[in-house]
């Protein structure tokens, strides 16, 4: 029903639309996030006798004969030797090329997934004996792929243990990191008398009692064989399964070694000459599925082709990469590959921010490519520090194989969070663009609304896009440079998730691609800013007050710690983005983001400021910021033409606001309009007395302006949101909020001053 209405004296004409959003919904099953082995799976089960699952010299694994250059071979690795046929996510294995005819490298990865550019083991020359360990994810069918780059080569793979896909069971548990510590050195007499292990001799080593506690099920060790004058291989008794194939000189690999009841392991030198052995403890696996960190799948190149000078360090970001959280990473299973070294040396790796350990990894020789597996806990900003301890530079590659997850705190569902809304750019040939809505309701469901016409509220298409997942806070809703919608929200597991439409929005329902888990473990909801070239940059703040930016899905980059609190506000300026955020003392800070880098933060002053700042950009790219002060009144600053901000804050009347304000430049009057929620939960507004005046009319109640004017209060449950739009009536702007009954209230003003009010019942979200 439509009817003509009369403006309240001295106020503008508004359109009131009531859109019912309430529905009978199913409450999602929200469980406490448990990122350890007991909660999600990822327990490690060491085999009592490591088992050879692949040997192309004998046809073990279903394939016989050498692998040719550029070949990829699929092997089945489950269902024998004590390895279950199902319920396995990954195996920890020793991979050895045998009888290579040329210098080459092998890569091992999960069947059915794309092959990356990383290598697993490098073979320096024809006939060389060398192996390396790796955590290798397996496909649901129990298969892995092996790629050989050059020449012909046989392949053997020995599985030392596997990781489960479900929690529980005996004799299995999670990973616990330890400070990298040398526990054995036969040359220096550490942990044993000074003596080489003779050809075909063995050595019993007490593993527990130091950084590896009694009761550990298996220890993860860096195993270094050095002073070898003839090639051979190192085995672990009683099965004498291979841990490391070694050439002349020194070589190392990471290995998980099962311990006996007394915490010991027995190593055998299966070679024709004596060797020295060094063991560095990196962590251990428990025997209790309720303890330790569980394995999670993720892989990719963390660093490639880094030139690391002699005795210098490089910091490599792990947290936030490839969907990982930015914290609570008990260990990253990585492969360290060194190339182009002219002198011998070794690497060290440790959590950034912690003391440098006195233990080596990845020993390398001149001119010989070497790869070594390690498990390293992450430190500050989710990074690890790697040091080249040598007399010459090396070229370093760091590849992620998997990671171990410590528990992350789950987040409470924010009640009555704000609605995100905007009208994207219209498609070519379309008269108008649709309006897009997104919000998280009080059950944690993420709702998306698609409105094909600005005044057709009975045709809003509502979709619950969250499935059984629970989200919290205000989602980010934006349009990328290719016209697609991007919806980004914070899961209650503290990770950031993203949806992207498969095409630009039009009159059809939005067709979302599957969810992408972006990781991040943030404390604030994500926000998006559109760069001048049309591309999007997304930001979030972690619990340390550090700002992170999503550079490319799914990897986050730290932009530094500024003790930020809450969600920042982002606006587009001439050559980049400007961010506004409060710090932990309630002072407002601002910084410029351009060309992938963030400037230093500038303080705009204030103490005890609260909420999220509201910002508009006026002509000349001058920002006006509005924020709630300590006493609840609103204060504002307008950027000077020079780019600086005034020292003093200007008061916007004595109105006491609850929550965060919204601000817009009216396309009708050109005046700045402000909206905020009062102590009675009604929405109030003010505007400039004249265009550009910077002085404000008295605050008044936002009403529907029916005829006669409504007198029944309509308390808002959320802070207001405001956006500009275009429709048949011209340009306008709208203010929206949800009331206590989850009803969407919608107020708008048009350029032509249309005096219409409509109330519709819209389709309920299913």
Based on Cα principal axes, name the global outline: elongated
Structural class: mainly beta
Note the gap between the termini: 26 Å
CATH classification, class level of the domain at 37-166: Mainly Beta
Helix content: under 10%
Quaternary organisation of the protein chains? single chain
Strand order of the largest sheet: 44-45-46-47-48-49-50
Largest sheet: 7 strands, antiparallel
Mean pLDDT: 87
Uncertain spans, ≥5 residues at pLDDT below 50?
Answer: 1-35, 705-711, 753-766
Secondary-structure arrangement, i.e. CATH architecture of the domain at 37-166: Sandwich
* Rg (C-alpha, Å): 31 Å
Strand-residue fraction?
over 45%
In DSSP terms (H or I, runs of 4 or more residues), the helix count works out at: 1
- Which fold does the CATH topology of the domain at 37-166 refer to? Jelly Rolls
The total beta strand count reads 54
What are the main properties of this structure?
single chain, mainly beta, Jelly Rolls, 7-stranded antiparallel sheet, 54 strands, 50% strand, disordered N terminus
Can you walk through the features of this model?
The chain is mostly beta strands and 766 residues long. Among the domains are: 37-166, Jelly Rolls, CATH 2.60.120; 175-285, Jelly Rolls (Sandwich), CATH 2.60.120. It is 1% helix and 50% strand. The chain has a seven-stranded antiparallel beta sheet with strand order 44-45-46-47-48-49-50, with no helix packed on it. Strands 39, 40, 41, 42 and 43 form a five-stranded antiparallel beta sheet that branches. A four-stranded antiparallel beta sheet has the order 2-53-52-51, with no helix packed on it. Mean pLDDT is 87; it is low at 1-35, 705-711 and 753-766.
């Amino acid at each position: 029903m439509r009817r003509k209405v009369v403006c309240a004296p001295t106020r503008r004409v508004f359109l009131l639309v009531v859109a019912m959003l309430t529905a009978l919904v199913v409450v999602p099953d929200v469980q406490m996030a448990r990122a350890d082995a007991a909660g999600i799976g990822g327990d490690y089960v060491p085999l009592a006798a490591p088992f050879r699952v692949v040997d192309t010299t004998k046809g073990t694994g279903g394939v016989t004969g050498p692998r040719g250059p550029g070949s990829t071979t699929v092997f089945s690795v489950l269902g024998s030797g004590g390895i279950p046929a199902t319920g396995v996510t990954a195996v920890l294995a020793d991979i050895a090329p045998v009888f290579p005819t040329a210098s080459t490298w092998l890569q091992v990865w999960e069947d059915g997934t794309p092959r990356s550019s990383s290598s697993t083991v490098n073979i320096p020359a024809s006939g060389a004996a060398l192996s390396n360990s790796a955590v290798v994810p397996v496909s649901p069918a129990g298969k892995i792929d092996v790629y050989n780059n050059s020449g012909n080569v046989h392949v053997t793979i020995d599985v030392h243990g596997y990781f489960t896909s479900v929690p529980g069971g005996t004799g299995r548990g999670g990973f616990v990191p330890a400070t990298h510590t040398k526990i054995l050195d036969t040359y220096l007499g550490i942990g044993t008398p000074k003596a080489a292990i003779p050809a075909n001799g063995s050595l019993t080593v007490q593993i527990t009692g130091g950084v590896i506690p009694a009761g550990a099920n298996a220890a993860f060790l860096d195993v270094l064989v050095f002073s070898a004058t003839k090639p051979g291989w190192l085995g672990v008794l009683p099965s004498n399964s291979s841990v490391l194939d070694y050439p002349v000189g020194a070589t190392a690999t990471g290995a998980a070694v099962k311990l006996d009841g007394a915490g010991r392991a027995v190593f055998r030198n299966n070679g024709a000459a004596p060797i020295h052995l060094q063991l560095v403890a990196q962590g251990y696996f428990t025997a209790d599925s309720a303890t330790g960190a569980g394995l999670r799948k993720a892989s990719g190149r963390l660093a490639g082709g880094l030139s690391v000078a002699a005795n210098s360090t490089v910091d490599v970001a792990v947290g936030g990469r490839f969907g990982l959280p930015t914290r609570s990473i008990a260990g990253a299973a990585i492969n360290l590959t060194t190339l182009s070294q002219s002198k011998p040396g070794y690497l060290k790796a440790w959590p950034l921010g912690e003391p440098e350990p006195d233990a080596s990894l990845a020993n390398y020789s001149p001119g010989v490519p070497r790869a070594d597996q390690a498990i390293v806990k992450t430190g500050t900003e989710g990074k690890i520090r790697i040091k080249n301890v040598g007399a010459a530079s090396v070229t370093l590659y760091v590849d992620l194989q998997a990671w171990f997850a410590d528990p992350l705190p789950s987040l409470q569902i924010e009640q009555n969070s704000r609605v995100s809304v905007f009208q994207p750019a219209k498609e070519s040939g379309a008269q108008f663009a649709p309006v897009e809505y997104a919000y998280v309701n009080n059950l944690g469901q993420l709702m998306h609304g698609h409105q094909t016409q600005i005044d057709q509220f009975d045709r809003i298409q509502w979709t619950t896009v969250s499935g059984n997942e629970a989200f919290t806070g205000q989602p980010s809703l934006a349009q990328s440079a290719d016209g697609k919608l991007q919806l980004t929200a914070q899961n209650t597991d503290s990770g950031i998730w993203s949806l992207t439409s498969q095409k630009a929005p039009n009159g059809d329902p939005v067709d979302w691609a599957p969810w992408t888990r972006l990781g991040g473990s943030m404390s604030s909801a994500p926000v998006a800013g559109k760069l001048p070239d049309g591309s999007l940059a997304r930001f979030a703040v972690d619990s340390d007050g550090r700002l992170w930016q999503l550079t490319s899905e799914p990897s986050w980059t730290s932009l530094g710690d500024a003790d930020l609190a809450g969600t920042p506000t982002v606006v587009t300026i001439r050559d980049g983005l400007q961010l506004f955020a409060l710090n932990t003392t309630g002072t407002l800070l601002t910084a410029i983001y351009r060309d992938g880098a963030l400037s230093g933060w500038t303080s705009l002053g204030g103490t005890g400021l609260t909420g999220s700042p509201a910002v508009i950009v006026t002509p000349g790219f001058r920002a006006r910021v509005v924020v709630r002060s300590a006493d609840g009144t609103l204060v504002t600053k307008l950027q000077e033409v020079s780019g600086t901000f005034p020292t003093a804050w200007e008061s916007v009347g004595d109105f006491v606001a609850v929550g965060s304000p919204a601000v817009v430049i009216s396309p009708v009057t050109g005046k700045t309009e402000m909206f905020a929620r009062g102590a009675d939960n009604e929405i109030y507004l003010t505007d400039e007395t004249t265009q550009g005046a910077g002085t404000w009319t008295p605050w008044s109640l936002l009403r529907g302006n029916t005829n006669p004017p409504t007198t029944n209060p309509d308390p808002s449950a959320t802070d207001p949101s405001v956006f500009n739009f275009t429709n048949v009536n011209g340009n306008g702007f709208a203010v929206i909020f949800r009331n206590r009954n989850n009803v969407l209230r919608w107020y708008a003003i048009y350029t032509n001053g249309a005096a219409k009010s409509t109330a519709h019942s819209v389709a309920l979200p299913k």
